[in-house]
Amino acid sequence: MGVSQNLSSLSCELRIIRAKNLDYISTGNLFVRHYLCAGHNKRIRLNTREISSTYDLCWNESISLECLGNQDSMEELKQQSVVFELRWRNTAPILGKIGGSKLLARAEVSWKDVLESSGLAIEKWVSMVSTSSRVPEGLKPPALQIGMKVRVPGEAEMIKRRRDVSRPKKWNECGCKHGECNDIDHDDIFALAAALEVL
């Protein structure tokens, strides 16, 4: 696979592209909730933006997660997976309020598939298991097109990142404005930074 034994930094990228086989869904909004392992039995929960179920079901959203670790971290990452949930929200107010979301389908993809692929990247359609009894019999199951990638930075980029990480930051430099970023455990996978980027 070509990953260094002395790995000190890597980037994991996740892309939610589009969904299909959801013609039976009534009017409302759809979004994808995904769960990423953060080490020490912790998970990060992220949602895509909500899009109308009556339009093209395309999100084209990416997230990039930076993590610090060594070869053991890579082995731990191989044991982890990303859980994808396709969720629906009724946009018609009930008693003046928009209700919570409803789980429609679920899928899981292992990081091992990515780490064992050529180029450390995959892009594929994932068939989802429906959790809704509203799916008419005989229809194809919902599917989600995703991309996953692991990138090991070059030596020059790793040195720059080490300098940036080691420089003390004020609470407002991270952009969170609540001061909790100083509590981040830098040994946790995916716990260094998470930034959502809409392409």
Description:
It is a single chain. The chain has one domain (10-198): Immunoglobulin-like. The protein is mainly beta and 199 residues long. The strands form two sheets. Strands 2, 3, 4, 6, 7 and 9 form a six-stranded antiparallel β-sheet that branches. It has a five-stranded antiparallel β-sheet with strand order 8-10-1-5-11. The protein has helices at residues 71-78, 111-115, 155-166, and strands at 10-20, 29-37, 43-47, 51-52, 58-67, 81-89, 102-110, 121-127, 129-130, 143-151, 193-198. It starts with 9 loop residues before the first strand and ends with a strand.
By CATH's scheme, which homologous superfamily applies?
C2 domain
Strand content: 35-45%
Question: What is the N-to-C succession of helices and strands?
Answer: EEEEEHEEHEEEHE
User: Please, how many helices?
Assistant: 3
Give the terminus-to-terminus CA distance.
Answer: 29 Å
